[in-house]
Amino acid sequence: MRTNHGSSVSNVTAKTAARFAFAAGISLLLSRAIFAGAVFHGANVPQGTIMVHSFDDNGHFAYSVWILSGADMGNMGNDLSVNFLPATSNQGALSQNLSVPGYHHVKYAGLETEIAATCRTAHCRFTISSGSSFSVSLRPSNASFTQPDQFTVRCTTSFAGGHPVCLIYKFKQAIQSRSGSTVQIQTSGQTSIEMKVSESLFDFPHAEQSLAAEDPGWDFDLIRTGAQNQWNAAFGRLAVEGTDAVKNEFYANLFLVLAHENVMSETDGSYKYSPSGTWDKTQWVNGTAAGYTHYGNVSGWDIWRSWNQLMGFVYTDRANDMAQSLVVDGTHQADHRLPIWTVWTRETSVMASCGLAGPNMVANFHAFGATGFAGKSQAFALMLRDTTEYLNRYGGGSANGSNVVESAASLFCIAQYAARTGDTAVYRRVMKMAGRWENYYNASGIAGGGGCEDPLSIYSWMIPWNMAGLIQKMGGATAAEASMDAVQETSMGNEPEMHLPFVYNWIGKPWKTQKAVHDMHLDGSDDLGALSSWKVWCMMGIYPAIYAIPGFTIHAPAVTKATITFGKGAGRKLCIIGQNASTANYYVQSVTLNGSPWTSTWLPISALTLDSNTLAINCGSQPSTWGSRPQDAPPSFDENSAPTALVMAVPQKQSIARMALNVRAGHSLDIAIANAGPHEIRMYGANGSMVWSMRGVGERRYSISRSFLSADFYIVKAVTGQGRMARVIAMPR
User: Fold this and answer.
1) Model confidence at 344, in pLDDT bands (50, 70, 90)?
2) pTM of this prediction?
């Protein structure tokens, strides 16, 4: 959603924080830009339930316990009503307001506030001057309070459209007195006061369970270290090198990416959902029994173009749980539709008039690696329920222009999901539906009225899966280039604009993409990490420009090195080397993949065949001809395109390559190998045992019958002689 992003991500200051192994010497000091949607500034763990956000309250900092970071959504923590305000009798001027991942520190003369967090609790340490009094105002709106003992205050309030929530405030020191929501603490000459906060959507016993499980004692430094270790692990999957300014900007954006989605499960695995979209009819489910963690706070329309791909590729285990959460929430909803935009687990239908984002999110999770969630079949059924709605949104000749392209994009995502899960009949049917966008285009772009938060001049380019067809509709490459030049900006303000800089790669002018990405700055609401995810991709030199297609366009990185750990568990590696990359050297001169020249501006994930892959991007200060040939453009897909096959290359310097694939029950599988001498194809089940193998020589095609395939997940390995760049294609049918 478009508003001023401010300098909350790009304007950061380097501090010393050697404890962060991911980027020694770097910490985050996010500026305090408050706009329609406040950017998170405080203490949390990656995608934790509680996010303690600091904000100015008449010259003093108060702390809310929830927020939707960078979104104009007043029905959760963004109104900052669920907060607390510490105070002392001897409080002076502000001298520090610092956030590093997992720790927040505000210092006034006479009052120092430190906050650390676990997933479901917050731990505060207040340092006061000797002899001073200390109090905390607990200020949730429409709240009722009880005090079960001399150390605890319980609060019942509501948020997110009226849902009740239970809060526990537990103090290390005894409560001296309480007047309504203001708690006076017995300092007895002490200068260090501690308070813990826990919440539950269920009841106070669940809130107590969170404290017992995550913060049972009074060791603030232990909680702080634990939070920082969680951030180290999360940041460690994207380890970058470069100048301090570049690293700081990168991790500031990644910090915001990982603020959401948020864990909705209680410590026992239970969570609440709202089938009617209101909290008056809530039900609960035990998620632990289903074997996953339930997530919520899903800004679907904003995140499906970039954020979901980053989670699926890098944070695959989390993405599997997020995809499963979408499926479960969809099955619980009265209309049995994948969620569009949820606050906690309640569907708000925000942005529903712009597009139904549920299928897009699941398809992108799946395409970029999150294939391990249990509800793949249920997801497919929920997607198909939406196809009629998408066709209705095409409308007649006066259709809303943004609805045309949003609907076409969703149908394309559904088609790709169908192909990857083995239903080629649905793939072909839905691809024809997706192709109807052409009926609404002319040389000037999309016809019809209306646009959703962006003009039709922007929406006209939102067909990245068939850019070749779009360029033809726009009058050819020369006319398309002139049109793109006219709409290209130096600010990234809204999600439909994300793919614009990369269009030049299809036109044969990749140096224009490289300059556009280099010149671009963020200038819009971050929308729960959506724009920040775009920045993270771009700074590494790759971007998932085609929805639900596992691959990236290539441009010059801002970092000198990015080591990406991708896939499930320990994963595999992609090391991107920005040779000579700098603020002056942002034009690509040449590229190699695992030591071999790479001339295409498109890098399919299937080309990453090794356990550790290296993409070396040589950068310079002047444009080059790299990637400018027609065959170097990224792919385009139309209704005549074959289902997207899983392709892998066996590099010349290796002899083994592998890929994972899903085969839908009742379907068969073709495996083809080209440019190979003597070879062996092996297929392994999910448990690692070999279930099929075949040897051959030269170009061969092997068919595996549907009666043989009893599961839906396999690993295919190709073993060849060294010295050939063999190519293997797996095609479910």
Assistant:
1) confident
2) 0.87
